[in-house]
Amino acid sequence: MAASVVSVSTAPPAPPQRPRTLLVGTAITACTIGFAIFCMVGLYLARRSDVLNTGQKWLPKGSVIPLPQPNMMFVTLLISCVTLAWGAYALRRDDRQNAYVALGLTTLLAFAYVVQATYLFSISGVTVDAPLGQGVLFWAISGTHLAMVIGGMVFMLLVTLRALFGGYRQLPEGVTAAAIYWSITVGVYAVVWYAVYITK
Amino acid sequence: MTVTESKPEEVVPDLGAAPAQPALPPEPPSGIAGVLGTADHKTVGRLYVGFSLLFLAAFLVTSALVNAEAMDAASLSILDGNSFFQVQTLSQIGVVFLGLMPAFLGLALFVVPLQVGSPTIAFPRAAAASFWGWLLGAGLLIAAYIGNGGPIGGNSDMVKLFFVAFAMVILSLGLASVCVVTTVATARARGMSLMRVPLFSWSMLVAGSMWLLNTAALLANLLIVYIDTTHGQVLYGAPANRWIQLTWIFAQPAVLTFALPLLGILGDATTVATRIRPARYGVSLGAIGAAGALTFGAYAQTAFNPALITEGLFVLQSLAVILPLLALLGGVADSVRRGRLRPTSAFLVAVAGMLLLLGAAVAGGLYALEPLNLGFTVWGAGVGNAATAAAVAGIAAGVFHWGSKIWGHRVAEPIGKLVFLAVLAGGALYAAGQLIAGANGQLPVLPDGTVDSVAANAELGAMLSTVGCALLAVVTVLVILAALPAALRRGPKADADPWGGQTLEWATSSPPPHGNFLGPIAEVTSPSPLLDVREGAAKEIV
Question: How far apart are CA B534 and CA A42, in angstroms?
């Protein structure tokens, strides 16, 4: 077989970097996690529909999903989106002081979400072994989303710490990637909030 | 600490239209340390291909064993009632998640960065982590089965281990898919728009995206089944029902997804075999994209909605997927007509795979037609068998096409002709057996290995499937034998471009050096940059 090697000689200048790899990889990963949660929500709705069609109540006796906590959790996440956008804006303007405050606030709000979610779980009274499988689906969805939020917190903490310790080179891309991940996390919560907490 | 320092000037990112070049990992050490600690996409790709081929051969043998049991429908003769279902489920999981998917991902991890002109894969350490996670998950999965785990095993601890190990395998393969998809999306050479991406890389972008969606849904199922299993089994009840929640991934349309990379391999092998510039490139890209979109199967979970196979969307999807495959096959025929055909092993095997995949799609279309009454018969398994055979052919074609590039020594090309015959015959028999039985109304075997009733020709069908599956196992062994001398650095060294290739992977030595190319890639102006150089349309590419 012929062996015609293409010439190797003087090359054009190296192309400048376009920092998109982390952004795209993060977006793909977050969308995949979000899709998995959507699938669980789909199974939840299908099961709930089946149970309601038999004339039974969906939530097991003694269980309650109050509205204030899920609503406050949603508001907390929405505010965290604003603070994260503030942080990314500050970074683009080289305003590190504002960036640190904004990223710190975002992490704090995320922590507040975790605290509120934990409280909601403790008062809901939905047990995993609820007789019609409600508990399995409820805990699978809310637990996976909580894990997604905690993953986002870790991601934000990492980019913030890299900023604090001078890793400025990767910071704008890292923060933007974290912002993408966080926005998708909030979007996923919007679906969970309506399908699980509001319509019940 | 001060917070008033200004950003250094030299790190202002260029947000212009230049391509990304992911940071190159440090040059790996040699020897065992180089293998264990590597983040080099080429080594990771080789490891994936090597291990997955071994798993594929082993699980095709166990799959043949399961088919052989159905040759005598009255009783089980090799396995007992307890182990039959375990071996059956292990075979299904093993062939797809320990064989087909990782083999394609291994090829992609090696070839895709070269094809798009990148010095490395996106997230190289994540790619390495995905391999070790997959291998560990595979080991735990097999250990769980050995310890009476699996979806309906008798040892509750081992059942839990099965779910965890299966999730680990899926997550690892998902991570590898993210690396491949991100590489195609962001790390292309200058001038290489998505319309100029080589067909294999494009098919991996499509397949990787579909794999992520389908396996994300599978992971959701798996998590719910796991929680249910460990908390009273209130949702699904009997252990046999656990497995039913997961079987949609092995059924139409999702099962066709696992053969998608074959389409790209066929495209690349065709340009090499016909020695002409690919015509209507956009149509080929569109057809692969459409085929991918039409294999989305996360919604088609018949465990929740058995009537789904008669619904309009499912029927339309099942019939529509035939069209892009026909378009691609027509494109191949046109290239053969216009070009000077050199029937390479890769081309022949890929064509055989394409015919099998088209057969799977047509059989899937018939399955969806309600008047034929094929729903829930083993006809559905026949569709899956044809898709599996097509994927096996795709892997074989990929090894013959890029084997010399991967290992730096020539892969035994004459064995490829034998593989072509064996994969065509084996795939046809593997599918035909179940299709014959399904056409006669045979229902699938129950978890205890028995059947409700035996339809006419069901035992003949099982025999044909057994022979076909065994032939596919032989195909995998032949591929291993063809590649083994090259993998062991034996035999004649391979040229940089043994085929007169048209895409960037052939512009570097075999195997490629650290960083893949000896210099930056010049601007790409067509889907066939090396052909541009040969024809004088471009001066040089590296």
Answer: 54
Tell me what ipTM this predicted complex has.
0.89
3-state DSSP call for residue B319? Answer: helix
Task: Give the model confidence (pLDDT) of B439-464 as tens digits.
Answer: 998 888 777 667 777 788 888 999 99
Q: Which H/E stretch holds residue B411?
A: none
Does B14 touch chain A if contact means CB atoms closer than 8 Å?
yes
Distance CA B166, CA B18 (A): 40
Question: What is the chain A residue with the closest CA to B225?
Answer: A136
* Residue B395 · residue B107 · CB < 8 Å: yes
Residue of B nearest to A97 (CA): B3
pLDDT computed for residue B457 by the predictor? 83
pLDDT band at B23 (very low <50, low <70, confident <90, very high): low
CA distance B124 to B129: 9
**Are B329 and B390 a contacting pair, CB within 8 Å?**
no
Range(s) of the domain holding residue B408: 38-534
State residue B411 phi and psi, 5-degree precision. -85, 140
Distance CA B470, CA B60 (A): 7
- Residue A142, pLDDT > 90, answer yes
Q: What is the C-alpha separation between B370 and B85, in angstroms, rounded? A: 29
Number of domains in chain B: 1
Question: Is residue B96 assigned to a domain?
Answer: yes
Specify the 3-state DSSP secondary structure of B493: strand
Q: What is the largest CA-CA distance in chain A?
A: 78
Interface probe for B, chosen from A10, A21, A129 (most Cβ of B below 10 Å), is A21
Q: Say if residues A91 and A167 touch (Cβ distance below 8 Å).
A: no
Q: Which domains does chain A have, with CATH numbers?
A: 21-55+65-198 (1.20.120.80)
Quote the pTM value: 0.91
The DSSP bridge partners found for residue B409 are B493
